């Protein structure tokens, strides 16, 4: 479900800016895994893959690894690599603070 929300959000962003065109859009959704990639002509890109992980007998978690990049108003390209799993969302990027 989260995958669908992210994908719909990316399409909404593309529709909100008619000067931005999608140059790559691929996705595969299977019962226990998925992957997708979206790229626009303004330098925005988002790729992710995920799978269902059995945590214990009663619980499962969706594990997602991905990255996205965008060109900010300052003209620089920012890239974020992330993992989202049973431990939460962990993002890494050169512009993000390190703990």
From TrEMBL:
<keyword id="KW-0193">Cuticle</keyword>
<feature type="signal peptide">
    <location>
        <begin position="1"/>
        <end position="16"/>
    </location>
</feature>
<keyword id="KW-0732">Signal</keyword>
<dbReference type="InterPro" id="IPR050468">
    <property type="entry name" value="Cuticle_Struct_Prot"/>
</dbReference>
<protein>
    <recommendedName>
        <fullName>Larval cuticle protein 8</fullName>
    </recommendedName>
</protein>
<dbReference type="InterPro" id="IPR031311">
    <property type="entry name" value="CHIT_BIND_RR_consensus"/>
</dbReference>
<dbReference type="InterPro" id="IPR000618">
    <property type="entry name" value="Insect_cuticle"/>
</dbReference>
<dbReference type="GO" id="GO:0062129">
    <property type="term" value="C:chitin-based extracellular matrix"/>
</dbReference>
<dbReference type="Pfam" id="PF00379">
    <property type="entry name" value="Chitin_bind_4"/>
</dbReference>
<dbReference type="GO" id="GO:0008010">
    <property type="term" value="F:structural constituent of chitin-based larval cuticle"/>
</dbReference>
